[in-house]
Amino acid sequence: MDYFRKLPGYKRSPSGLEWQVLKKLPLTLLLGTALPAAFLWILHGSGLIDAVLYDRIFIMTVSLVILFWTFMMVIAIAAFIIMLMKGPAYVADPYQPADFNDKDDGPLFRD
Q1: Is the Cβ–Cβ distance between 16 and 30 less than 8 Å?
Q2: Averaged pLDDT for residues 39-60
Q3: For residue 68, what are the domain limits?
Q4: Which residues of 2-17 are buried (b: 16+ CB within 10 A; e: fewer)?
């Protein structure tokens, strides 16, 4: 049994923006994490603010980084789904119910 039978005559769609997004994703994740981390490191090293304010800024910065990661994950999943949808089409196996008849039962609408 061939599970991945491609639909004959199907033309694959050309790749588009989804590949560009997937290729830029690692750099975007690195910069989106490193910039807030550098901000916290500089703020911690400067000693200009007290510990309570630094703790609040730290929590807000970490939560923003986690929110950024979540957005990037959603964008990556969407780009991956688009990439899969543009791939080859496959033929599904037919499913026939137990009460299926090959005979024609007559017209669908009766007068």
Answers
A1: no
A2: 91
A3: 17-84
A4: eeeeeeeeeeeeeeee
Q: How far apart are CA 35 and CA 11, in angstroms?
A: 43
Q: How many CB atoms are located within 10 Å of the residue 79 CB?
A: 19
| Rg of the chain in Å (alpha carbons) | 27
Q: Taking residues 68-94, what's their average pLDDT?
A: 88
What is the C-alpha separation between 5 and 89, in angstroms, rounded? 9
* Angstrom distance (rounded) from CA 50 to CA 72: 33
Q: State the maximum Cα–Cα separation within the chain, in Å, rounded to a whole number.
A: 89
- In the block, tokens 């609408």 appear at 109
Q: What is the pLDDT of residues 33-44, one digit of tens each?
A: 999 999 999 998
Judge whether 26 lies within some domain: yes
- DSSP per residue, 9-33: TPPPPPP-HHHHHHHHHHHHHHHHH
**Residue 90: strand, helix, or coil:** strand
**Is 44 part of a structural domain of the chain?**
yes
> What is this structure's pTM?
0.70
61/96 Cα distance (integer angstroms): 56
